[in-house]
Amino acid sequence: MFRHTTVRTVRRVSSDPRHLTGRQGEQHALDHLRRLGYELVARNHRTRFGEIDLVMRDARALVFVEVKSRRAQRPGAVWEALDERKRRQVRQMARAFLHEATGRPVAEAIRFDAIGVVVDARGGLLRLEHLEAAF
Question: How crowded is the C-beta side of 58, counted as CA atoms within 13 Å?
C-alpha cells in the first residue's frame, strides 16, 4: 500500500530571550520608520555575510537599517555593539543585497541608519533612538 506523506518545513522561532528582544526591537523600529513614511523593502534579508535587519525606502534613499535592542534590566550602551567590524559587515551585506536583489527599488542614494531600542520585560517600547546616516 502506498501512502503519500506531505512534509512541511517549519521555521522554528528561537525561544532565546535575546532573539525575542531583537524581534521586538525590530518591530518597534519598523513601526517608527513606517510612521515617518518609509516603505519596507525587505526584513531580515539573508546574505552570505549575515542578515540585514531592515531595508527601507524613503523619498530619496534606499536605507539599510541596523537595529540594536536591549532590555531595560540590562540596557547597557545600545551602540556598543555597532563597532567598526559590525559597520563593515552591514556594508558588505548591503552590497550583496544590491547585487542579488531583483526588482529592487531605484533610489537616488543609499544610506545606513541605526536604531537603538530599549524594551521593558513585556517587550513594550521604553526608548528608541534613530540615527540617520549613522555610518
Answer: 19
Nearest Cα to 23, choosing from 82, 62, 71, 73?
A: 71
Confidence of residue 6 (pLDDT cuts 50, 70, 90): very low
Our measurement of the distance from residue 49's CA atom to the centroid of its chain's CA atoms, rounded to an integer in Å, reads 14
In angstroms, how far is CA 79 from the centroid of its own chain?
A: 15
Q: Each residue of 38-62: pLDDT tens digit?
A: 999 999 999 999 999 999 999 999 9
Q: What stretches of the chain adopt beta strand conformation (E)?
A: 39-47, 50-57, 61-71, 109-119, 125-131
pLDDT digits (tens, 9 = 90+) for 73-100: 665 667 888 999 999 999 999 999 999 8
Amino acid at position 34, single letter? R
Alpha helices in 14-83 (DSSP H): 17-35
Of residues 90, 98, 37, the one with CA closest to residue 65? 90
